[in-house]
Design a protein that fits this description.
By secondary structure, the protein is an alpha+beta fold. 39% of the residues lie in helices and 17% in strands. A 7-stranded mixed β-sheet has the order 2-3-4-11-5-6-7, with helices on both faces.
């Protein structure tokens, strides 16, 4: 299948134009586009421009508030809760990251939760904003649809509930950055398989009888499997409590599946934490110790057939370098969807 490669600037401009054409204020459209392209440049193909059609349909259906009044429900020196007023999730989480950074610089730690947000793309994008500020970032989120059953059950009452952790490594060095779903595969990858007309590998999903499910178009008939069996289930549950229940956001049967419902308010819950190493062992100590450990790991002996040992964030850093040079991949199926977005917004097609 043919794949086009478009520059980050072209993709960013197109996303901005689509959002503006759908009625989003220019400043918000620029910010959302920038965060989405940042995700694409890092290789997060299921959470960047790939999601534009879904966001556009939700905006057009009135499921997202384009003129939100985001307010601090709680605000203390080191912690706060932001009510997103059903805004684009990217705007909600960017604001939470800004507040968490400011609190951490002043007090050592900034913990920001949110309620009444929306899908915000990749967690690494927001954890990365924290490490860009020289701080350690932790991101937790309740996914935007339930696709996981509790361990031993068949009722999907939990989502992919991702966690991202970012540790700065110093100026001009990419951070060590872990971003993972608590399921074997993020649901965005299932959607990408469906768009490409490909089957899923066995081990991603099971049907209600516990048998492997490999047709991504039948994903609603099954559940995603957790990482590490019951351990992934337990991690997903705890993230739901910390990013959802504690913030007054939707969890369990209250969760709205934004894949099927374009109008209902999702009340998506997310939490981001910024930690200032200067208030602990010191920033310089963190950079020196982290650098030493990463060097030891990368230079350690490998198994036969293994060419290198990688650490979390290596793939994203390599993708960023490659895609800044060669462009962001736009497969044929995605191109069709993007041109649907253009038609909806009344703007020229991307190609």
């Amino acid at each position: 299948m043919d794949t086009n490669y478009l520059s980050a600037d072209k993709v960013r401009t197109f996303i901005t134009d689509v959002f503006c054409g759908l009625g989003m204020p220019q400043q918000d459209a620029v910010l959302c586009a920038d965060l989405m392209v940042r995700t694409d440049l890092s290789g997060g193909d299921g959470h960047g421009v790939f999601r534009l059609l879904q966001y556009s349909r939700r905006i057009q259906a009135g499921g997202i508030n384009l003129h939100p009044n985001m307010t601090l429900v709680q605000d203390a020196p080191s912690i706060g809760l932001l009510h997103g007023d059903n805004a684009m999730g990217h705007l909600v989480m960017h604001r939470c990251a800004e507040l968490a950074i400011a609190k951490a610089k002043a007090t050592g730690i900034g913990w920001m939760g949110c309620c009444y947000g929306n899908h915000a793309g990749a967690g690494s994008t927001y954890a990365g904003l924290i490490s860009d500020a020289g701080l350690v970032g932790i991101y937790l989120a309740v996914g935007s649809a339930n696709h996981m059953a509790p361990w031993g059950g068949i009722a999907p009452l939990l989502s992919t509930n991702p966690i991202a952790i970012s540790v700065p490594m110093g100026e001009n060095q990419p951070p060590v950055l872990l971003d993972m779903a608590t399921t074997v595969a993020a649901y965005g990858k299932v959607k990408m398989k469906a768009q490409a007309g490909e089957s899923m590998p066995e081990g991603w999903m099971i049907d209600k009888e516990g048998k492997p499910l490999t047709d991504p178009n039948r994903s609603s008939e099954g559940t995603l499997l957790p990482i590490g069996d019951y351990k992934g289930y337990g991690l997903s549950l705890m993230i739901a409590l910390l990013a959802g229940s504690m913030n007054g956001a939707a969890v369990g049967s209250q969760l709205v599946d934004f894949n099927d419902d374009e109008k209902a308010i999702t009340n998506t819950g997310q939490t981001i934490v910024a930690i200032n190493p200067a208030f602990l062992g010191g920033t310089e100590n963190l950079l020196m110790s982290s650098g030493q450990l990463i060097s030891e790991i990368k230079n350690s002996k490998t198994l036969p057939g293994v060419s290198e040992i990688r650490v979390p964030g290596d793939g994203a850093a390599k993708a960023k370098q490659t895609r800044n040079r060669d462009g962001i991949p736009i497969p044929a199926g995605l191109l069709r969807n993007l041109n649907l977005c253009a038609k909806m917004a009344g703007v020229p097609p991307i190609l």
